[in-house]
Amino acid sequence: MAKLAGATWHFVVMLGLILCLGACNGVSARLNPRHKTHNVTFYVQEAINTGDDATAFIVGGPDGNTSALQLGAVIVVDNAIFATADPKSKQLGKFQGLYVVDGGHKYRAEITVTIDQPGDLIECTYEILGQRPSFNTTSDRQLAVVGGTGLFLGQKGYAIAHTVSQTLLHEGTLPDAQYNVQKWTLVVGK
Question: Cα separation of 166 and 143, whole Å?
Fold first, then answer.
């Protein structure tokens, strides 16, 4: 009888686990439609300290040095975003914010992505925060999408940034001038 009681106990525990998993699946299935995600992909054309055509400037650094991407450098960005890597493709909006460089050749990015919606008076934006290897062309970087406004109100998720191309310029007084194209994919939902 003790053997049967043990087997019964195992059966009851297993049945309970199966019912619990079934209930969790039911809840998950009911919640999934509300939490569907979608991708938003765009390309950023960025020119750092390149002169008159610059879209990003080093505005502060140690001892007032604004010509080097080094610990403590603060970069203000105001980049256009496009539908493809070609700068002649359709412009979708703006990529604006700050990069702050740390000592490990990484930077913290605080970016607002504004997607232009023709005829819409409310700005449609995504706010992106995170840290990533500084201007690294070898790997994808992940950052958090912490929220959205306008048509994207309440959406959050993550962003994957990939450098498509990068050109370092070493001329004149701007040794850290560079031009790069980045592909951004935001995976977002409510």
Answer: 20
CATH code at 64?
A: 2.40.480.10
**Pairing mode, if any, of strands 156-171 and 106-115?**
unpaired
The helix (H) or strand (E) run that includes residue 84 is none
C-alpha dist (Å) from residue 128 to 16, 26, 159, 161 = 42, 33, 8, 11
Phi, psi angle pair for 9, to nearest 5°: -60, -45
pTM: 0.72
Annotate 65-89 with b (16+ C-beta within 10 A) or e (fewer): eeebbbeebebebebbbbeeeeeee
Judge whether residue 27 has pLDDT over 80.
no
User: pLDDT value at position 51?
Assistant: 79
Cβ proximity of 47 and 56 under 8 Å: yes
What's residue 190's pLDDT? Answer: 85
Q: Are residues 27 and 56 in the same domain?
A: no
Tell whether 64 and 144 lie within a shared domain: yes
Domain count, the chain: 2
Residue 61: give the domain boundaries: 36-189
